[in-house]
Amino acid sequence: RASISFEKRAELATNQVAKQLFEIIALKKTNLCISVDLTSTAKILDLLEKVGEHVCLVKTHVDIIEDFNSDFVIQIKQLSKRLNFLILEDRKYADIGNTVSLQYLNGLYKIGEWADCVTVHSLPGEGILKALNGSTNGVSRGVFLLAEMSSEGNLITPDYTKATVEMAAKYPDLITGFVCQNKDTFKDPGLIQLTPGVQLETSGDSLGQIYNTPEKVILDKGADIAVVGRGIVAAKSPETQAVVYKNALWKCYQKRISGKM
Ligand code: UP6
Q1: Ranges of residues in the chain whose predicted pLDDT is under 70
Q2: 51 alpha carbon – ligand 1 mean position (Å)
Q3: How many whole angstroms separate alpha carbon 121 and alpha carbon 147?
Q4: pLDDT of the residue at 154
Q5: What's residue 170's pLDDT?
Q6: Which of 48, 51, 70, 180 is in Cβ range 3.0-4.6 Å of 242 for a Cys bridge?
Q7: 3-state class of 207 per DSSP?
Q8: Which string of DSSP letters, residue by residue, matches 149-185?
């Protein structure tokens, strides 16, 4: 998987969102995902206006936004079209299928209406994927399943990871890829490895987050897309920093597919 180009992998994807993402990555030459963990709609839109052209994917946590409203949804969708990125709502669903279906389609956020893809824990079992599969109303939607986490002391075991990858194989139309930390976690080149815990400056935070450099996540850990939050969002110039991460990540990807590692 790691040595195949993103163009080629777009052809191998069975989920439409994965296909689209591979195409955007290849076209824009960026495998950077920005995690916009900000609490106001104005700040999020302002940041995306600056960094949107440098990313393939924007990861949101809508439940941290103080002034979420339907106009924000319209505006972020317009930005995603204009600057050509997809939106991943990092909801990390983890309940029985029926509840997750209600959470996905209803409430204040109506995530299913606007998010191209969402993150989901495999913990509750397959019902969670059945629920989402049945809730997409024929629109192309995707799921990133959590197979591993970046945080210190997390309770995910190798058996859990393996079972997660096996579960995903039953839903080729729905699964975009995995949130994971290792290149051996899965093999299918049509799926995307999304890896958070990436920063150039520090090795962690005070609450258990563990960071690796772009080189380490792309070349050693097998990430296809790297998720950067505070490394960009908290920088003096997020725009400049987004370009720094974009270039560093892309250089590593090129090295990886050239086979000269
Ligand atoms: N995230 C992780 N680790 C995981 C899964 N998800 O950090 O295993 C998410 C966090 C946060 C982002 O919820 O939104 O990725 C990382 O942000 P940071 O770069 O500011 O640490």
Answers
A1: 260-261
A2: 18
A3: 8
A4: 98
A5: 98
A6: 51
A7: coil
A8: -SSTT----HHHHHHHHHHHTT-TTTEEEEE-S-TTS
Distance CA 220, CA 215 (A): 7
Q: Is the CB of 112 under 6 A from ligand 1?
A: no
Question: For residue range 98-148, what is the model confidence (pLDDT) as tens digits?
Answer: 999 999 999 999 999 999 999 999 999 999 999 999 888 888 999 999 999
What backbone torsions phi and psi does residue 48 show, to the nearest 5 degrees? -70, -30
Residues 6 or more apart whose CB falls under 8 angstroms from that of 35 comprise: 59, 61, 90, 196, 227, 228, 229, 233
Q: Looking at residue 48, what is its pLDDT?
A: 98
Q: Which residues are catalytic?
A: 92
Backbone angles phi, psi at 41, to 5 degrees: -65, -40
**Does ligand 1 lie within 6 Å of residue 150's CB atom?**
yes
**Residues 2 and 28 sit within 8 Å (Cβ to Cβ):** no
Residue with the smallest CA separation from ligand 1 atom 1 is: 196
Predicted TM-score (pTM) of the model is 0.98
Pocket-testing residue among 120, 209, 212, ligand 1, by greatest number of atoms within 8 A of Cβ: 209
Tell how far the Cα of 212 is from the centroid of ligand 1, in angstroms: 12
Residue 108: predicted pLDDT = 96
Spatial distance between the Cα atoms of 108 and 212, rounded to a whole number of angstroms: 35
* Ligand 1 pocket test target in 34, 37, 55 with most atoms within 8 Å of CB: 37
C-beta of 110 in contact with ligand 1 (< 6 A): no
Using DSSP's 3-state secondary structure scheme, residue 6 falls into helix
* Whether complex ipTM tops 0.85: yes
